[in-house]
Design brief:
It contains nine helices and two strands, in the order H-H-H-H-H-H-H-E-E-H-H. The protein is mostly helical and about 240 residues long. The C terminus is likely disordered.
């Protein structure tokens, strides 16, 4: 796939740099709202819309926004998008709005949103930035839906509100409580680590798993790459 193409940006967000399973970002909503698959999907798609349009606007204004005030400017843009989405949810999907609660306005300070604005949208054209936001949002939605589905099945015997376990099944109520999110996330991370170790035993290069990149970050010169922003042009770690 061509670098910065729409397909590459979507694949990058869903697989290579999945915000939850690879970059481990946005843990607050990930752990708090995934009591069910519906809540996880709703939070993920809401974040995706904010990500996509924020990236688009920030990219379009990247040559206009002064560098010294770029972070406050990004926050204003993101806050405007979140306010519009919040009003739309409140008007058309009140049940989801009530379920997500305070975590909707907290999207403004979600590190995924500001991270993509700083590392990608502010350095790349509008269309790739739009699809970068969609890809990262879809990856976030997929992760939250998976975690929410596991918690809902184990904790309530249901999936998307429909009964999927037999009547004799006794739900593990801890999975719909706060500790359940940590248990499920830990299990999924452990499964990823197991795959990585098995690949290393077979002699495969597994160093890029969980790195969020397919390149050597210390020698990376790709504009908009998170590693490039972190290490700088010199190849030495900054900060």
């Amino acid at each position: 796939m061509k670098n910065n193409s729409p397909a590459e940006r979507l694949y990058n967000g869903i697989v290579k740099e999945n915000p939850t399973f690879v970059l481990v970002l946005g843990m607050c909503p990930t752990l708090a709202v995934t009591t069910s698959a519906v809540n996880g999907l709703g939070m993920g798609l809401t974040t995706m819309v904010v990500l996509a349009f924020s990236n688009l606007v920030i990219s379009a204004l990247r040559r206009v926004i002064p560098d010294k005030v770029r972070i406050p400017a990004f926050i204003v843009i993101v806050a405007s998008m979140v306010t519009m989405i919040q009003l739309l949810l409140q008007g058309f999907l009140p049940a989801l709005y009530d379920a997500l609660g305070i975590y909707i306005p907290l999207i403004v300070v979600n590190c995924i949103i500001l991270g993509r604005a700083e590392s990608y949208a502010s350095k790349n054209p509008a269309i790739p930035s739009l699809f970068d936001g969609i890809g990262m949002g879809l990856g976030f939605s997929l992760a939250l839906t998976c975690i929410g589905a596991v918690r809902e099945v184990l904790g309530a015997g249901e999936l998307f509100g429909f009964r999927v376990m037999p009547a004799s099944y006794v739900p593990f109520s801890i999975f719909v409580m706060a500790p359940g999110a940590f248990f499920v996330l830990a299990f999924l991370t452990a499964a990823q680590n197991r795959i990585k170790r098995n690949g290393e035993k077979k002699g495969k290069d597994m160093s890029k798993i969980q790195s969020g990149c397919l390149e050597d970050c210390t020698a990376c010169g790709v504009s908009g790459c998170c590693g490039h922003a972190f290490y700088g042009d010199s190849g030495k770690k900054e900060g």
